[in-house]
UniProtKB/TrEMBL annotation:
Domain 2Fe-2S ferredoxin-type: 1-76
Statement: the UniProt record of this protein carries the keyword Lipoprotein: no
Annotated Pfam families: Fer2, Fer2_2
Keywords: 2Fe-2S, Iron, Iron-sulfur, Metal-binding, Oxidoreductase
GO molecular function, one term: metal ion binding
Official protein name in the record: Isoquinoline 1-oxidoreductase
Keyword Oxidoreductase: yes
């Protein structure tokens, strides 16, 4: 049996310790926000937060995570209130949405470690592949998310694609 914490809840998986985290999350815990993309660790669709570090769930075995804390897209915020989620929605970034959970997780970790990332920092911190080609809008949205996280600008979800500037 393998024990660790997922989205602030202790879990015990009665699965082979060699089982990839991706399948434990999706099949045993019914946390389907973490997506299967390539299975080789190249696309980032399965990105999760393990103790504050971006990890690819298709490449991590549950046995290697004993005692760790895992956060999935479902655990980031239940109501899409995380600054990254707000900014992506406001900028109308998601298209098909398949890569978005992994991108949100990568961006949330980036912003936790760097509250004012440059465009180069964002490109380096978001290794995910998006087949829809959202990259230009994604850079701006993550920049906006950093501003939201710092309290420099609230987001209005009633008016998509608008970061509301604070009034003086």
């Amino acid at each position: 049996m393998t024990r660790f914490t997922v989205n602030n809840q202790p879990v015990e998986y009665r699965m082979d310790p060699r089982t990839p985290l991706l399948w434990a999350l999706r099949d045993a815990s019914n946390l389907t926000g973490t997506k299967y993309g390539c299975g080789t660790g190249d696309c980032g669709a399965c990105a999760v937060d393990v103790d504050g570090t971006l990890r690819l769930a298709c490449q991590e075995t549950i046995g290697a995570l004993e005692g760790n804390f895992v956060t999935t897209i479902e655990g980031l915020s239940k109501d899409r209130s995380h600054p990254v989620q707000q900014a992506l929605i406001a900028a109308n970034v998601p298209q098909c949405g398949y890569c978005i959970p992994g991108i949100v997780m990568a961006a949330s970790i980036l912003l936790r470690n760097n509250r004012n990332p440059s465009e180069e920092d964002i490109k380096a911190g978001i290794p995910n592949i998006c087949r829809c080609g959202i990259y230009p809008r994604l850079i701006g949205a993550i920049t906006d998310a950093a501003r939201i996280a710092r309290g420099d600008a609230p987001v209005s979800l009633d008016a998509p694609s608008q970061v509301v500037e604070p009034s003086d």
